[in-house]
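Propose amino acids for all 345 sites.
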């Protein structure tokens, strides 16, 4: 349960952080066959302040042993404040340098996996002609599941033979109603193409809900396993009581009171509960660290971080299970017939 709870918290927090940190604009737009004319229509809306256009393609890279790279092309030299890709170093200078030739800024996941240094070249296997791009910098982003790079749009258009924009990052003017603005933009483009325009907050919420549904399904299996474990704990406590009936009766016969027997049973339950809870938490922590290595091996940009705030609840839960399970044998010991129990074999 601790492992599942930690995984759920990390996935939920990091996906939400991705939207909150990366997309500082207000609206994300996917417009079919989007060209400069359609961008001008969007910019004419009185609620719109700025639009960043991009082209997005997925291509294999020769040096990555055939792995696919999510490539996004920009023509602007100013992504901030609307799009924060966590570019390391002097971002304006790097974006200016990016436009100067076939250059690329890659994610830190790629840098660590393939040991890329600034100045190295990678060969992107475009359908028509493979092209070499020079690495000029890095960025710490979850875009493209960590396999992500940005290049100049003018070169990506030629090399990938793409003429239309894939993505629009739209900033609205202060105080604008985002949902109404999306509806207006969709209506203004209705005669030309289809448009999927959605406020960033809504997109983040929908993504969070989808992840929550998936995590809930995983948690159900963990709860079932926990229920089976609780039944096993109670069963073991009952068997232990049955096996010790005679010894308990002997202790009662030499002067031990019912209260002392009850106290002994509950102290045993408390002790075994502490041991099992600490063991369970230790195993959960090891499982989280192991899962972190697995995710790194799969090149996923999600990190499993142990959440100390979860310790008290799971520790108390593990202890209470055995303490509450001790109630049944405790009741049995209070009703124990000493003479019959001593004769019991």
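Proposal:
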């Amino acid at each position: 349960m601790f492992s599942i709870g930690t995984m759920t918290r990390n996935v939920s927090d990091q996906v939400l952080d991705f939207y909150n940190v990366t997309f500082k604009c207000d609206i994300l737009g996917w417009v079919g066959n989007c060209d400069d004319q359609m961008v001008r229509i969007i910019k004419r809306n009185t609620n719109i302040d700025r639009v960043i256009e991009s082209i997005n393609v997925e291509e294999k890279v020769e040096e990555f042993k055939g792995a696919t790279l999510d490539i996004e092309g920009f023509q602007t030299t100013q992504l901030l404040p609307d799009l924060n890709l966590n570019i390391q170093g002097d971002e304006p200078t790097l974006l200016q340098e990016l436009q100067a030739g076939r250059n690329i800024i890659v994610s830190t996941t790629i840098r660590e996996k393939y040991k890329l240094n600034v100045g190295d070249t990678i060969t992107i296997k475009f359908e028509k002609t493979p092209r070499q791009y020079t690495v000029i910098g890095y960025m710490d982003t979850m875009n493209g599941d960590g396999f992500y790079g940005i290049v100049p749009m003018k070169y990506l258009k030629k090399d990938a033979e793409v003429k239309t924009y894939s993505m629009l990052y739209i900033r609205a003017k202060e105080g604008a109603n985002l949902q109404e603005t999306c509806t207006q933009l969709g209506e203004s483009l209705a005669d030309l193409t289809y448009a999927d325009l959605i406020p960033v907050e809504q997109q983040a919420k929908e993504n969070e809900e989808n992840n929550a549904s998936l995590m809930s399904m995983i948690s159900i299996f963990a709860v079932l396993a926990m229920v089976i474990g609780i039944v096993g704990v109670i069963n073991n406590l009952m068997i232990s009581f049955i096996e010790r009936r005679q010894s308990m009766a002997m202790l009662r016969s030499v002067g031990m009171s019912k209260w002392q027997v009850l106290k002994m049973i509950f102290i045993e339950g408390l002790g075994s509960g502490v041991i099992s809870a600490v063991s369970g938490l230790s195993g959960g922590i090891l499982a989280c660290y192991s899962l972190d290595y697995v995710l790194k091996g799969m090149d996923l940009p999600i990190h499993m971080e142990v959440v100390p705030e979860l310790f008290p609840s799971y520790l108390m839960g593990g202890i209470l299970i055995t303490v509450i399970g001790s109630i049944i044998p405790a009741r049995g010991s209070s009703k124990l017939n000493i003479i019959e129990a001593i004769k019991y074999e």
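Residues 33-193 form one domain. The chain has two domains: 33-193, 206-343.
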